[in-house]
Amino acid sequence: MSTQPPSSLPEYSLSALPIPRSVKVALEEAGYRTTRDIELMSAEDLSVELAISTSEAKFTLQQAEEWQGRTTHGGIGGMTSQTSQAHIQSATAADLLSTATQPHFSTFSASLDGLIGRFGLSISSEAGSSCKGKERLHTGSIVPGMVVEISGPPGGGKSAIALAVALSARESGQKETELNGHSEGKAHSESGEVLIIDTEGAMTAERLYEAAWAVVEEDKRLPHDVLQGIHLLRVSTQHEMLALLHTLDEWLESHPKVNLVIVDTLSFHFRQLSLDIAAKRRAMELSRTIISKAAMVHHCAVIVCNQLATKLLNAENKPANFDTGDRAILMPQLS
Predict the structure, then answer these.
(1) Which residues cross the membrane (predicted)?
(2) Does 171 fall in a domain?
């Protein structure tokens, strides 16, 4: 970080910069109000503090520098009227509306959607309140930025719920494309893409095809239209899982159309008896960091499936064995 003293140039509000609204909100929440507040920060420091990508941080600092007039073309007084006008028009009402209107993903179960909406973000319930009848039931309560964990015993339907959300995301993306991009000749699969990370082999090609066919048969579309926007990654070993976690941020950076990530099942490769507690704790901490970044930085909804396991507890609710245990309960396997 630079040790130079702050410049004597005038300070300007960060809300006037032509940067994404999500970055402006992050700056506001972090307590940064003017260009002078961030002029000595590096892109790496700003990226970490705001939980944004490094490219967004570099762009923000560049815009702040240009706004203060530090470019080689002159200071504030040397800015052309066209440049000034561009800054003024950078945040239009349409931009604000588009960022406020988020896609909603459904489990195709009114009970589950209602439960998620009850404990999820308020924007979900607000958006759903404008719908009536059956349309309200299929609005969905999962939006980009949310992280939902689905825990249950083997055979409890976790993969089926995750697959339903994936198909809902594809439906949402296709509708958005038809409304906004079809007149421009864009393909149906250009938005609302999904990444499925399959560790147990439950997401077979046949299962995906049958599920897609059930969704499209009513409106006479082809399953290919739905499947084309689903990226399926099979992870066979623990080493592959760790490698994927380390590279997921880069993968999402190169696939900006993906707004839903499904991990089925996160606990599969980290429940071996040979894995010591310290290594498992490090793996879980890495998983939490990557999942949080996928939701906050890349604005994806994240669905994480986990197995339940039987935990023995004593009378004081402390871990026990078969000899000292007082009762048994089902808990997430990685807890």
Answers:
(1) none
(2) yes
Longest dimension (CA), the chain: 81
Upper half-sphere CA count for residue 159 (Cβ side, 13 Å): 17
- C-alpha dihedral (171, 175, 180, 183), degrees to nearest 10: 110
- Pairing of the two strands 193-198 and 258-264: parallel
- Predicted TM-score (pTM) of this structure: 0.64
CA dist 280 and 289 (Å) reads 14
Backbone angles phi, psi at 192, to 5 degrees: 65, 40
pLDDT tens-digit series, residues 202-247 = 899 899 999 988 888 766 778 888 898 999 999 999 899 999 999 9
- Structural domain count of the chain: 2
Q: Read off the CATH number of the domain in which 256 is found.
A: 3.40.50.300
Per the structure, the complete domain to which residue 85 belongs is given by: 14-96
The pLDDT of residue 120: 62
Structural domain contains residue 5: no
